[in-house]
Design brief:
Radius of gyration: 30 Å
Structural class: alpha/beta
Distance between the termini: 59 Å
Largest sheet: 8 strands, mixed
Oligomer: single chain
CATH architecture of the largest domain: 3-Layer(aba) Sandwich
CATH superfamily of the largest domain: SSO1389-like
Order of helices and strands: EEEHEHHHEHEHEEHHHHHHHHHHH
Length: 385
């Protein structure tokens, strides 16, 4: 099910909406005063929501639709002039519009979005009238000039909180109409995709999981199998297998750096820097880089684990043992174990197993995040030399 949300604006009530010839595609154009109805005809959604304030040109819009009942319209004209339109007044037109347009129509009264409270009320009102799971398309052509910004926020809120994905944004660009020409119709769905990328960067900065970019890169034109390598690399890295993660990243890194997709180009440098650890020469260097990265992301379990593994890899390398063999790694580390190594091992074990009382110094460290962060940072500096 797809719902189209279109706003009713406030303009010159004497002249009404200015008629324009909107060009949607090579074979579809409509000369109409109200863009939303032409968009409805073009998209053929399952449902239409018309949203406006108490001072929007509801009376002009309904009059243009020739819905009858002059007495009802006169009451609405007075209410619009006084900015006293109520939801009950609008509901009287729902069935009339439904019959005329051939799809369910809901007329929704929203506040003017003057402050935070009213802006929140708009989001809640939209969530109340759109069922979970429906897809939404938003028309931001008419209405107050600040409503498109609120529409972007609504798109994120409805998508993430109410499971109502917003598929596209449309704008009838009247001010871009050439003299005597057609009015272009802009699809602004790319703004939603930019927000997807920005949110994914935020997810990475918090969690360190760059696998969130895999689907975005595929949607942006990268070969699906190549993009999936990034997801695989993230999986191996986050399950303690930097060797396999490095192999996957080495196979996809150039594709990321040279990706020509519009969104990928915008974020390629940031993403490349975030997976650059695999280019370190030695395994212990890669593990140390990962420990530093996860400490930055406040993932103390992985930070302590990768630092411990880095110490084992370094000990195996220095003693010319096989750094990919568990027993040889352990033997090499046991041979050079310092107090720092012992402290790190105790700290890591306590984080892994959730133990607090058996080791009082460790328990004190784990009692406060800032102390844990400082302790791990100091161990990184000393053990990473």
């Amino acid at each position: 099910m797809t719902t189209l949300l279109s706003f009713i604006g406030k303009g010159d009530r004497q002249r009404g909406y200015r008629t324009a010839n909107y060009r949607f595609s090579n074979d579809f154009a409509r000369e109409v005063p109200y863009f939303g109805l032409a968009l409805q005809e073009f998209l053929k959604p399952d449902r239409l929501i018309l949203a406006g304030t108490s001072s929007s040109m509801w009376d002009v819009f309904f009059s243009d639709q020739n819905l009858g009942d002059d007495e009802l319209l006169l009451e609405l004209i007075d209410a619009v002039e006084q900015s006293t339109v109520t939801q009950a007044m609008l509901q009287r037109y729902d069935q009339r519009l439904t019959e005329k347009l051939g799809l369910p129509v809901t007329c929704l009264l929203i506040p003017h979005a003057k402050d935070e409270q009213q802006q929140v009320e708009i989001l809640q009102s939209l969530a109340d009238v759109i069922p979970t799971g429906e897809e939404l398309v938003i028309d931001v052509t008419h209405g107050f000039r600040h409503l498109p910004m609120l529409a972007l926020v609504a798109a994120r809120y409805l998508t993430h909180v109410r499971n109502i994905p917003v598929k596209n944004l449309y704008y009838g660009a009247l001010e871009m109409t050439p003299t005597g020409g057609e009015t272009p119709v802009l699809e602004l769905g790319s703004l939603l995709r930019m927000l997807d990328w920005t949110e994914s960067l935020a997810v990475y900065d918090k969690s360190g999981d760059y696998g969130v970019f895999s689907t975005l890169l595929a949607d942006d034109g990268m070969d699906g199998k190549k993009a999936d390598l990034l997801q695989q690399a993230a999986f191996y890295e986050r399950t303690g297998n930097p060797v396999k993660a490095s192999e996957k990243l080495s196979s996809v890194f150039m594709d990321i750096s040279e990706h020509a997709g519009a969104m990928g180009r915008l974020f390629a440098d940031a993403l490349s820097k975030r997976v650059n650890w695999f280019r370190k020469h030695h395994r212990y260097e890669k593990e140390q880089a990962l420990a530093e990265a996860y400490l930055k992301h406040q993932d103390y379990l992985r930070a302590s684990t990768y630092l411990h593994e880095s110490c084992a890899s370094r000990a195996a390398y220095d003693s010319k043992a096989n750094h990919n063999d568990f027993d040889e790694r352990k033997k090499a580390l046991d041979a050079i174990k310092t107090q720092d190594h012992k402290d790190l091992n105790n700290l890591r074990n306590s984080i892994v197993h959730g133990l607090r009382g058996t080791n009082k110094p460790v328990a004190r460290i784990l009692n406060e995040e800032s102390v844990l962060r400082t302790t791990l940072n100091d161990l990184l500096k000393r053990l990473g030399k």
